[in-house]
Design brief:
Chain lengths: 353, 290
């Protein structure tokens, strides 16, 4: 461990000074998540407040790195944070989150065992994250542009949809998607040149890059796009909540799987409320209402998924073993690889104009 | 800017002025100098000193700029963007300022002035998103043209280089109008009348009299626009789509997307140095003009 010296303190103070930390009341519960991603549903926070008396206040991030940055620069500000499990290990290593007392979370009993025990969320016998929901990153299409949903990711490269394709502005996701399209393991990319070529040939097809659900939905609503990468939960929200003509596809090449966990930041001022909130978030009641009213990814709580209709996408399609076998789950990515992917992505973006 | 005090008066004037100056300088020190020096420091580090990360001093972040041609290419692209936006602002802003200063009087001047300043009162993001509604295919411009024209046209400027130009020109035009207005208003009308009565054509009056006298305002406006546009990232990101990658967006990526503050800081200071160099190179030319 490196000792704090004056330089550290000065620079840390300079960083912390960039965001003003307001006074926090004990019964306030500060949650950090993507915007519009379950925890901030008004009906849910109202129910939670009525039940526990903790007032839920949200702050949002637009990328995993921004989330980590917010945790690093504002210690003590947040009580619950939603972390993609591929990043939980990094948050543990940097001491950004604290162990969770699973005993206080009664609904944890229903969690899928392999997810609850996942090495991504646990370290040294302690749970640092409670698996919340999982889903896939794959291709979603605008129904108005297709008679039948496509079965292959190659649809993104189809000249018929030139200028009507979107991709998320995220180096890791773009590289892993291209790895999938070129028949490689997303967690162990052997041939990065193939990935580069695949992405380079995709660039002329692309309309723009999206960064939030809102971007994607607005472009579909305005008829600006036919097809693009999307998240399963977001696609079901687009359909259920916004009545948009969106169909989510698990192509024959497979899809990228991710697991989102809920964690408690180190130094959280309301750890008690945080445990109660996580318990509330993995409960079947909340999940079923979320999926039916708004549209959600798949709950990590098996009892919650069993509460859905038998025909529901999250139970019928993603619960199908043949589909599950095609999903490659994201593992943590080393800093070197991340840097390499970012360089590749920036080069491609800069030279495609 | 202050007028030079008469010689000898400097000492006696400074002391009473001190209590008035102090708050401003204190604020500048706290709000600009300290964070900026922290950024200079970061730009020489290998990693941020947070959460017990180990770090060392390095020049690597600056070297990274030269290791690939990516950053240089993007910087040139951003400089071109800055020049183009400044040029359009001059072409649109100067005539507007002239009309405001010399043609309109009273109520109508106030009304037009208000229209010029109005964009300043709205949030930048709101302005950019409202442009998005106008520019896209099936958007306001597209629908309006197709409703009027007998033949089918498709106007879809969204997610393109022209869209970025339009958004930036709209955002920064008021600077040019305001600075030119101030210098144009200061030109004595009798000078113009004298030139006209001595036989100068309108064009000659503009070329030999008005533009040279208004030059300080033109230059101030150009600098005020050029510098922020070169580093702009919000407008390119929202309006530019696939052609929206500029030097500013790459810096933003370093801070927001990959948490590489040292590289982001180094890239920012390289930008600062290049912009200062451009202004320094232009200075002799500009000084002669004024």
């Amino acid at each position: 461990m490196r000792k704090m010296n004056l330089k550290h303190i000065v620079s840390a103070a300079a960083l912390a000074g960039m965001v003003t930390a307001g006074a926090v009341q004990a019964d306030e519960l500060h949650v950090l998540n993507w915007k519009g991603y379950g925890t901030d549903e008004a009906w849910a926070t109202a129910a939670f407040e009525a039940k526990t008396g903790h007032k839920v206040i949200h702050d949002y991030f637009n990328s995993e790195q921004e989330m980590l940055t917010k945790l690093r620069t504002n210690p003590g500000t947040y009580d619950v944070v939603m972390i993609n499990a591929a990043f939980t290990g990094q948050a543990i290593d940097e001491a950004l989150i604290q162990p969770i007392d699973v005993g206080k979370i009664s609904n944890a009993a229903g969690l899928a065992p392999e997810m609850a025990r996942s090495e991504l969320l646990n370290a040294e016998g302690a749970a640092y994250g409670v698996p919340w929901v999982w889903g896939v990153t794959s291709v979603a299409v605008n129904d108005k542009a297709f008679d039948a949903p496509p079965s292959s990711v190659e649809v993104m490269w189809d000249a018929a949809h030139k200028g009507k394709v979107v991709l998320r502005d995220d180096a890791l996701e773009a590289v892993q998607f291209a790895a999938l399209a070129s028949g490689q393991n997303i967690n162990d990319i052997k041939d990065l040149d193939k990935v580069r070529d695949k992405l380079a040939s995709l660039m002329p097809q692309i309309r723009t890059f999206w960064s939030s659900e809102n971007d994607w939905n607005q472009m579909v609503a305005a008829g600006q796009i036919d097809v693009g990468t999307y998240w399963s939960g977001s696609a079901s929200r687009a359909k259920t909540s916004f009545n948009l003509p969106v169909t989510f596809v698990i192509p024959k090449e497979g899809a990228i799987g991710w697991l989102d966990g809920l964690s408690i930041p180190a130094g959280a001022k309301n750890a008690e409320g945080a445990h109660a909130f996580i318990d509330f978030m993995i409960a079947p009641d909340f999940y079923v209402e979320w999926d039916q009213k708004v549209g959600a990814p798949v709950s990590a709580n098996l009892e919650a998924v069993a509460g859905l209709d038998e025909t529901a996408f999250n139970r019928a399609v993603l619960g199908d073993p043949a589909v599950a076998a095609r999903i490659q789950f994201q593992k943590p990515v080393s800093d070197e690889d991340r840097e390499k992917y970012l360089k590749l992505w920036q080069e491609l973006k800069a030279s495609s104009q | 800017m202050t007028a030079a005090p008469p010689p000898g008066a400097q000492h006696s004037q400074l002391r009473p002025a001190l209590p008035l100056l102090l708050p401003a300088y204190l604020w500048l020190t706290l709000a600009i100098f300290l964070p900026l020096s922290a950024m200079v420091f970061f730009s020489f580090m290998t990693d941020l000193p947070l959460a017990d990360r180990s770090w060392a001093m390095t020049l690597g972040n600056y070297a990274a700029f030269f290791e690939t041609d990516l950053y240089g290419r993007l910087l040139l692209r951003s400089l071109r963007l800055g020049l183009e936006v400044t040029l359009y602002c001059v072409l649109i802003g100067f005539p507007c300022a002239y009309v405001l200063a010399k043609v309109l009087k009273g109520r109508s001047r106030e009304a037009i002035f208000l229209l010029v300043i109005l964009p300043f009162w709205s949030n930048g993001l709101v302005r950019i998103f409202s442009w998005a509604i106008f520019l896209r295919g099936g958007g306001v411009i597209d629908s309006a043209l197709n409703a009027v024209l007998p033949f089918e046209v498709s106007v879809d400027l969204m997610y393109s280089y022209p869209a970025v130009i339009i958004g930036l020109v709209h955002s920064y035009l008021p600077y040019m109008v305001l600075t030119c207005y101030l210098t144009l208003q200061a030109i004595d009308d009798s000078l113009i009348e004298a030139a006209r009565s001595l036989g100068a054509s309108r064009l000659t009056v503009l070329r030999r009299l008005i533009v040279p006298l208004a030059m300080p305002g033109l230059i101030a406006g150009a600098v005020l626009i050029f510098v922020p546009v070169v580093g702009s990232f919000m407008e390119p990101r929202i309006l530019g789509g696939r052609s929206g990658t500029f030097y500013g967006t790459v810096i933003e990526d370093q801070f927001v997307a990959v948490f590489n503050w040292p590289l982001g800081a180094a890239l920012s200071f390289i930008l600062l140095a290049v912009v200062l160099a451009v202004l320094a190179l232009a200075a002799p030319v500009l000084r002669r003009q004024t």
